[in-house]
Each structure stands twice: as structure tokens, then as C-alpha cells.
Amino acid sequence: MRNRIQEISLNSIIIIVLSIGLLLCQNALQNHKSSQIESILYLPSGKYLKYLTLGYNQVVADLLWIKTVSYFGSHFMTDQQYPWLFHMLTLIIDLDPKFDFPYYFGGVVLSLEASQAENANKILEKGIDAFPNQWMYPFYIGFNHYYHLGDPMTAAPFIERASKLPGAPQFTKTLAGTLYEQSGDLNAGLEFYRKVYENTSDEIVRKKIEERIKTILSKQGTDGTRN
After folding, report:
1. Helices H, strands E: what count in the chain?
2. Measured between alpha carbons, how far is 39 from 134 in angstroms, rounded to an integer?
3. pTM over 0.85
4. Residue 44's pLDDT band (boundaries 50, 70, 90)?
5. Residue 101 domain boundaries
6. Which residue in 3, 82, 171, 206 is deepest, having the highest Cβ count within 10 Å?
């Protein structure tokens, strides 16, 4: 748990825990659920939960994060089914949008482990809103569209967006063009490669891009060279 919890008085934490506990107990009784981990399912959406946190949204987000990790771990070791993981992560993110790790966790685990690529992308889209300069969020969305959803056409613009953000690795600068090619949109691939060529000084990348441009031109039946 992060250091900021230590800054909150014990009485405040007790009030928060009691408030959430009463809500959980009431819903658990109404729905005849006995599992303490599953009881978190009955929390309202994050925007309504904020009214119950007495202004300590970040503290409650931390507590819910611990519950979420426990939920994931228990199911990972048993049935490997995670029907409520997306809901739990959404609660945390709504309470504390600047808590970055749930975006990574949701974007990767929901797709790779829970087979919920579309929900993973919803989490990652929230990550883009909170951290617009973070290249990994659009990259993971593109990856999910390509690898899990089999849609290179939708994946390509996200990879292209990622490639233009600070810290993006060099391979993203050619990957988007490759996805455009695979989707059949050769003109989009060609235009992307040309823009990257004009805006990179890395000779290795430039050489690879030249090769891809020649390949696309050959597919179009054109003998032209790079403009």
C-alpha cells in the first residue's frame, strides 16, 4: 500500500472501512453471497462510490487494489476464471485515475489471462485519457486488436499513435506500416512509412523503411522511388 495511507488518521480509515463494510454486508445478504472476495462485486460504480469515501478516494482505491490482487490470485490458482476483474479494476480507476498500475494490469491480464480483450481495451482507453503521453497504452490496444481480435486494420492507427509518443521503441515505427499492409490498405502503409522516413535519423530504421516502401510499390505495380 502506498505511503499516502499513512497520512490519513486511524479514525478516518475506520470510518471509511465501516461505511464500505456496511454496504458490502447489505448487498451480500440481499444476494446470498458468502465469499468475502466476491462481495466487492456489489459496490456501485466508481462515480457513486466516491460519495461514500468521505473524500479519501485514493485510500479506498488502494484498499480495493489489495482486494483485486487477492481476487485475481485466488482464481488464478483455482478455476482461472475472472468474471468480475474488469468491474473491480474500473472501480479503482474511477476512484483514482492517476493510479497507473491498474491500467497496465488490466490491459495485459484481461486480454492474455482472462480472454477479455475488449474489456482490456476499455481499461487502456481510460489510461490514454489519464496519461495521454504514455506510448504503451495505445500500443497495447493495437496489440489486442491485432493479436486477440484479429483486426490489423483497427490495430494499425493505435500502433501509429504509440510510435509518435515519447519513449516509444524503434520497432513501433515500422510495425504500424506492416499492419496497414496486412489489412490491405497499401496507400495508408506507404504514407505512414514515408512520414516516418522523413522524421527519423536512425539509419537502421530508415533502411528498413526503404525496403518496405519498395515492397509496397512493387505490390502496386509501380517502379517509383521514395519521394
Report:
1. 11, 0
2. 33
3. no
4. low
5. 1-131
6. 82
